[in-house]
Structures are given as structure tokens and as C-alpha cells.
Amino acid sequence: MNQSSAKLIRKFINPSDPTSRKVYRRIRQNQPLLWSEFDPPDRERANETLAKGMRLTPITIGDHLAKSRFLAPGDFIDILVHFNFGQDRGSVTTTLLQHVQVLEIITQVAMVALTPAQLEQLNFARAHGTLTFAVRNREDIEKSDLPSRSEE
User: Fold this and answer.
1) Could you tell me whether strands 109-114 and 91-106 are parallel, antiparallel, or unpaired per DSSP bridges?
2) Distances from the Cα of 14 to the Cαs of 11, 41, 70, 101, in angstroms?
3) Phi, psi (5° rounding) for residue 43?
4) Are 134 and 80 in contact (CB under 8 A)?
5) Closest Cα to residue 132, out of 145, 149, 115?
6) CA 30 to chain centre
7) Are 94 and 80 in contact (CB under 8 A)?
8) Is the Cβ–Cβ distance between 129 and 85 less than 8 Å?
9) Measured in whole angstroms, how far is the alpha carbon of residue 147 from the centre of its chain?
10) What's residue 12's pLDDT?
11) Could you tell me which of 26, 64, 46, 145 has the C-alpha nearest to residue 101?
12) How far apart are CA 59 and CA 122, in angstroms?
């Protein structure tokens, strides 16, 4: 490749120009294009920028939440768990994790960053209970001591 060809290619493959970047998130009809929907020019991915001590893990969020306009990468969720101990022993619902950031959404799966302790709690809850996800307001950053709700 000669020098003039290389300049011509660079002109058309400009990392700051969205038309030369690959889209790696689903874009819905009439949805505005955001820089977050384009693949970064240096292929920077969430796992490469994950904070030290955090673990990236997938959680299945379901079709309704995944397709809604209420949850997008960068948003925060609370994760609740419901344990049913049987008819004689009742059940309990509690907020397991608060203010968990969604880094990416791929179809019905949200990629979230958790500490190893949070990841252990989530895996236990996923194996023994039913998970529910609640989208938080972006300005709601407080973590509250919430009581568990039990039925006997």
C-alpha cells in the first residue's frame, strides 16, 4: 500500500467519526444514536476497564425489562430475592443488593460489576430463591436499611 492510499484509508476510517465505528448494541427504531452504542476505537471493553477487586457477571433480567426504555447501560438497579421455605415455614423477601450498575445489556442479559462477596450472595440467592430487579432513579444513590418482608 502506498502512502497516498494509507492517507485515503485514514480519512475514511476515523475513530472519532461514528460512521467508521461498529455498533455493538441493539438500536431500536427512532432511538437517538449515542456514543455508548458504538464500539470504542481501541476496542476498550467493560472487562478491561473494570475496577480493581470487582467481578463482571451476567444476570438474566427478562424480556420485558431488557426491551423497555427504562433500563440502559449506566443505570443502577436493586436486586431483591424471595425465598419460599414451604407451606409450613412461610417465605421471605429481602433486598439483596442496592445500587448495582448495569455496564452492558445483551438481549435479556445485563452485565453488572460486583465485589466477590456480592457475587457469592447473588449466586446463593439465584440458586435458592427468585430474583427481582428494580431500576433506580439515577439521582437516587442512597443505600437504605430495608426490612425484610416475611409471610408465615
Assistant:
1) antiparallel
2) 6, 9, 32, 31
3) 60, 30
4) yes
5) 149
6) 22
7) yes
8) no
9) 26
10) 46
11) 46
12) 9
Q: Please, what sign has the CA dihedral across residues 64, 69, 73, 75?
A: negative
Q: What is the pTM of this model?
A: 0.64
Residues of the chain with pLDDT under 70: 1-26, 35-49, 146-152
Give residues with Cβ within 8 angstroms of 6, minimum separation 6: none
Q: Where are the beta strands (DSSP E) in 17-90?
A: 55-60, 76-84
Cell of residue 58, nine digits: 451476567
Sequence-ordered list of residues with C-beta below 8 angstroms from that of 72, at least 6 positions apart, any chain: 102, 105
∠ CA 38-100-37, rounded to 5°: 5
Closest-CA residue to 20 (of 31, 9, 29): 9
Q: Are 136 and 99 in contact (CB under 8 A)?
A: yes
The answer to whether residues 133 and 78 touch, using CB atoms and an 8 Å cutoff, is yes
3-class DSSP state for residue 53? coil
